[in-house]
Amino acid sequence: MGLERFGFRKEVGFAAVVMGVAAVLCGAYALDYPIVLAATVGLAVVQPFVVNASTKLVARWFPAHERANVLGVSFVAPVMGVALGSGRPRRGSHA
Question: Is residue 68 in a domain?
Fold first, then answer.
């Protein structure tokens, strides 16, 4: 809905700002449950904007025979990043 009404740049820009603010709030107020909950809800509200924008971007930039591969990578890469990052201890971590 937003891509057609407001345009790609405005939608993705709005989502990026909300996600950035919500991420900073989660980190800065990690021990304040109501703020973290509100920030998480904010992230959940704008996530569809980003997911829908990625499919629109792939449809515009890639030929039809490459779209399935590109979308597959774009949806799997964040999950793989978390999985790979979770398996390594952080620097300075003594746990």
Answer: no
